[in-house]
Amino acid sequence: MIKKNENLISREKGSAIIWILIAVGLFAALAFAFQSSNRTSTSMLSDEEATAYANQIIQYGNEVKAAVKRLTLRGCDETEISFENNIVSGYTNANAPASKKCHVFDIKGGGLDYKQINEKWLNSNLSGSQLYNEWVNSGVPALAFVGKDNCGGGSSSCSDLSLFLPYVSQTICTKINDVLEVTNPAGDPYDEGTGICLSNSNKFKGTYSTGTCGIDGDPVINGKKSACIKTRIGAASTEGYLFFTALIPR
Known about the structure:
Elements: H1 2-38, H2 47-73, E1 136-138, E2 161-168, H3 170-180, E3 226-233, E4 238-248
Helix pairs in contact: 2-3
């Protein structure tokens, strides 16, 4: 009788261990699935998801452009426009009226909310780069033949006020151009070859940057007020994809 009980207890212990192992395995599998879902690669996005994300980026660019237009129609000079906000620093514009009537992100001005960036839009491999996960408003001499007819990219007299989103994923960058009907040569966004000077130091604070560090002209990109390109970004010349839209073509 004692031996039978010992065998029963032994079997019960063995069964309990098996169930514990099964539970641990299931928990590990669930944890892995959860982590994987949170770090879904943009290369795994469906065409519908990529299109939706591309449209969200384009739409926000249009909203910022519309807000800037409202401010200029109310009498704000282009040097008075302020992009100061509570999310990212570096946009304090001493030229902006104290009333904040020329602030894009203020109810007294443009009335726009700063849109948080969805990290699924970006190439996470470049997360350590300056300006990663930021919308960048800048007056760098960037866009090719967007303002004055005789201005190519990089001319200091042709600096446009623009909105940029650096380090967009290749998948979404390509889709942005599809939506905007911008050519993707050989299926990849146009590679402008040199680079664009975007950094914390040239966020727009009321003045337009000088220099020749802008998007090189090409029939694919000339005159485009919104597009996504491949370029080298900032002082580190980090290769990546960049969305841009002109807010005030000059």
